[in-house]
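Dear support,

I submitted the protein below through the web form. The confirmation email said the job was done, but the results page showed an empty box. After a refresh the structure appeared. I'm attaching both so you can tell me whether what I see now is the final result or a partial one.
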Amino acid sequence: MAAIEIKVPDIGDYSGVPVIELLVAVGDTVKKDQGLVTLESDKATLEVPSSAAGVVKEIKVKLGDNLSEGDVVLVLEAEGEGAAPAAPAKAEAPKAEAPASKPPVTPSHRAPAEPAAPQPALSSGKPADIECKMVVLGAGPGGYTAAFRSADLGVDTVLIERYASLGGVCLNVGCIPSKALLHAAAVIDEVAHAGDFGVEFGAPTITLDKLRGYKEKVVTQLTKGLAGMAKQRKVRTVQGLATFVSANELEITGDDGKIQLLRFEQCIIAAGSQAVKLPNFPWDDKRVMDSTDALELAEVPGSLLVVGGGIIGLEMATVYAALGSKVTVVEFMDQLMPGADKDLVKPLADRLKKQGI
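What the results page shows now:
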């Protein structure tokens, strides 16, 4: 009886990633590439797929365990080993005779036909460079999770992303880089208040290049991990800007100008978001930034006006204030973080004021 150890594959540069969900139990029959456990690293959740088919004999991990590449997840009995013979198929019951069809309605009794709506063309008639059953537009958290699930269900899947790395706004220019910078801001704030319990430090020296490099390292680790998971699930990834040319076809234009025609059966659109360029703002002035520009940390200005007191605005306000800017936040609504419970917003607003924002 052959026993197979299923191990954690390459998940990028991460190690010690916690298990948040067990997807199978002892005795379950699993297929090759079926998800076994779910790992959570920052905001990315990754399923560890099975490298073989068989019956689960022993699970080596539990919820909360920290896993790294090469760790054993479970032990399988190879498919076909010790399997009971299949039961004979039941004889098919005779089909009942179809009822006699009703006499056709004469044309004189039919309602006048509605004009048919024009249908989009299903094909351009051109030969396709890529064909698939499912295509997903956008490789952010909505897109890559949909593509991974589609592939886990055995569907031939292509994931299209216009930018060079997977992960969308969240991983590249949103949640993840902002949290990396907020961590640095939190350390600066803790050190500044260490004197309250008798530990004194000097003023911090900020090296923007190193701080920027730290942020980029965090982003790169996550995006590389996603690319590895896509490869393991046999999700094909294509970089370029996709445009519909028919109901079942896309033209994908790469950075080099090369155009590929992709023909698909089903499509999921997860195009994501981008920063809004407010009218009447001098966007050609280098002092005016959107949230993506602010994450680049080109410089730390002496003073900074943040227009918008939502999540990303307050995150950037906190980071730049910790780095030494005098920050002012303006918000159109009657409170910061519009829509959030006022009982939660008040202590946050009080803390921001204490930080000089």
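Response: this is the final, complete result; the empty box was a page-load delay. The radius of gyration is 28 Å.
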